[in-house]
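Example 4.3 (complexes with small molecules)
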Amino acid sequence: MKKSILIVLLVTLWHQCFCWGFYAHKRINNYAVFLLPPEMLVLYKPYIDFITTHAVDPDMRRYAVSAEGARHYIDLDHYGEFPFQSLPRRWNEAATKFSEDTLQTYGIVPWWIQVMLNRLTEAFKEKDQAKILKLSSELGHYVADAHVPLHANSNHNGQYTNQQGIHGFWESRVPELLAEKEWDFFIGKAEYIKDPTNFVWQRVLESAVAADTALRFEKELSAQFAGDQKFSFENRNGITVRQYSSSFTIAYDLKLKGMVERRMRMAIFSVASLWYTAWVNAGEPDLTKLLNKEFSVDDVREFENLNNAWKSAEIKGRNHDN
Ligand SMILES: [Zn+2]
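Answer. The structure with zinc ion bound is encoded below.
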């Protein structure tokens, strides 16, 4: 009995650790490829498996590098009330006002996206294929995280309101149950973003507003569900997994009126549009004539290390279970 409780706990924790869940991150990068113009598809389509698989590298890096965690979220409520005007949108001004340590403590996702966007733009200018693919995959991850409401709020796993587990529920359980069968991912085309800083802040502010709703609705719905209806036990490969029941998940999605689907669609659009913007700002290089097509020994080693760190280690820095 004790052993099975432990397994249930471990699997539940494992499930809650990741931003958007591995499933949704991979879908977002994958779908984003199809929004690109033909001049970019010549590179992204043949490498779509790479871009899909490596969508989760930044989460795996959280097991290897302690500074990684802060790049995935921002606790906007720490800076007062919406629209958090006391927080300057530019890094230097924000760091002068609040100190770099404070910014790191409460998360830096909107600024980190800018760093990754600049790096990707440089990679396009250098016509460096290995870098373009690696940075596109990773930029996609951070952009997707910025669309998750609970990545913009300090009550990120409902830990202050007795709603532990809501993080993985919103970003993993809901899409895993509904995305494939119910949701529409026909999104149209990537667009050029004139002001990426402003664009990313708009997305993060939308997330912050949605966080209150995501938390409140889960609480209201929980009051209507008995404990044995809210959760169900499922056997997966011989392991008993406790998870939010299908009926609770569907009821939550209905109450949210498609919020998770909307944020996922917006994430796909944003990822594709920022890839496109980096390429345009680099002067629209011909992607059939790139250099450095092989990943370096260091790149390959890093991919392996990330995988190993993820398989064997504890998460470094903040995770979503505390
Ligand atoms: Zn993440």
